[in-house]
Amino acid sequence: MSTPSYFKWISFAMVAIFLSGCGSLTVLDPQGPVAAEQKGLITLSIWFMVFIVLVVFVMLTIMLVKYRDRGNNDNYDPSIEGSHKLELTWTIIPIIIVTILSVPTVITIYNLEEAPVIEGAEVQEEPLEIHATSVNWKWIFSYPDEGIETVNYVNIPVDRPVLFRLTSADSMASFWIPQLGGQKYSMSGMETELFLAADQIGNFEGRNANFTGEGFAEQRFTVNSMTSDSYDDWVEEAQTEFPPLTEEEYAHLMVPGHAAEMTFSSTHLEFVNHVYDATYSLDKRAELGYEALNPHSREGKAFEMPYLTQPIDVDQRYDVELEDE
């Protein structure tokens, strides 16, 4: 006995729902004005496209029913001239669709190139400036005004715009905090700017959204949004209770691998800015004995990806030593 077709479709739908996962869709869970504006644009696009799909399916159904073969084709003449009205219609309608989607998209893109407006704030504060540097496979955050540097986490005050200045020490990465806003690329020898803000206190996950090799999946960081008083307390604690970052320690952060969360009372901007020195990480890796290897080669398989913790062992080397067979 054959399985009814409707049962097959129901089973397929259930499997698709199961495979889609049960986690929350963070892109549509905005925790800041930038993400909220982008959610509005995404929602508008989705519903508009759903409307278009429904119209197409309704018209398809009408065509199939109205013009189906009824066995009486006496009046059917396939050699007819094209309809100018139809040709104009299916030319103008796509133009209208693209225009409706383009106008709000362009407006939103230009709005997001400026510091977001914090609703309810009596005075709009100047954006907090943070330099975000990607390096395989970790994130380094520098607070130039506060003289603080963190690894794999970043603290920001709630209800204050943040200007992230993005660059990379090696591979091109994508800086993305889904609940606070869309992504932008970080590139070696270049700097891009991204305005974000949080209007809720909490912890948000950030990541690299651009595949960069073996350790890409774990290139994540935590964003801690806190009150202004808590942020000021953290700044004071970081400036007084944590050691400064030395160039020797920073050189080890340039070696591909992972790292725990770290805090320093100075920044690498005092001795290097990757915007102007694109080969700095390559030079430091060579000094420490690291050599890029094919992961499928004997040498590549023997290389153990480092996991750095604070304090960083500045005497560590990254040469590959092969055992004789």
From TrEMBL:
Source organism of this protein record: Shouchella xiaoxiensis
Protein name in UniProt: Quinol oxidase subunit 2
Keywords carried by this UniProt record: Cell membrane, Electron transport, Membrane, Oxidoreductase, Respiratory chain, Signal, Transmembrane, Transmembrane helix, Transport
Primary location: membrane
Function, in words: Catalyzes quinol oxidation with the concomitant reduction of oxygen to water. Subunit II transfers the electrons from a quinol to the binuclear center of the catalytic subunit I.
Reaction equation(s) it catalyzes: 2 a quinol + O2 = 2 a quinone + 2 H2O
Keyword tRNA processing: no
Domain (Cytochrome oxidase subunit II transmembrane region profile): residue spans on this chain: 19-116
Topology within the bilayer: Multi-pass membrane protein
PROSITE patterns for the chain: COX2_CUA (PS50857), COX2_TM (PS50999)
